[in-house]
Amino acid sequence: MTRQEARTILEQMTTSESLLRHARTVELVMEAYANKLGENPEAWAIAGLLHDADYQAYPDRHPNVIVDMLREKGEEHIAHAISAHYTHWGVPYETTLDKALIACDEITGFIVACAQVRPQRLEGLTAKSVIKKLKTSGFAASVDREEVRIGAELFGVNLNEHIDFIIGVLQQHQAELQLAPITQNEA
């Protein structure tokens, strides 16, 4: 499967701008980690892009619709990672891809939420400030803090370093993601 084919599938099932941006951010982070670890950047990016592809169209069947679709296309390794991207589903983590996706999903969304409430967005955002926000249960309350902790643990990364890595990746794409600092004219 190509990334363009994956993007087409995503866009057929997802119209929400925030979900599309979340898919793109996780795609970028997964691709960057694959490059860092010497893994397959296309497969990792596709896993990030499609992990929530069926969430809007089929919320009661998520992630089974996209997982079945990927299996039909012979993309078992990506399908398995997506089927395992939430610890409460009880799917075993067999590969580095599986562990990376669980480690990147929730925290990437949380970092974007942190950036969106700051006038300078991603500029100057640090792991320390993200960790502080994680301790505020009312902020981005839908983010499962335990998933963030377990994901980093499974992936074998220090949470502060993991957050800094993700911020760095997102900063490289902040204009595309509409996470660039707000100018005086926009405020």
Automatic annotation (TrEMBL):
Gene3D superfamilies referenced in this protein's UniProt entry, alphabetically: Hypothetical protein af1432
Domain HD/PDEase: 15-119
Record GO terms (molecular function): hydrolase activity
SMART domains in the cross-refs: HDc
One Pfam family it belongs to: HD
Keywords noted in UniProt: Hydrolase
Protein name per UniProt: Putative hydrolase (HD superfamily)
Species in which this protein is naturally found: Pontibacter ramchanderi
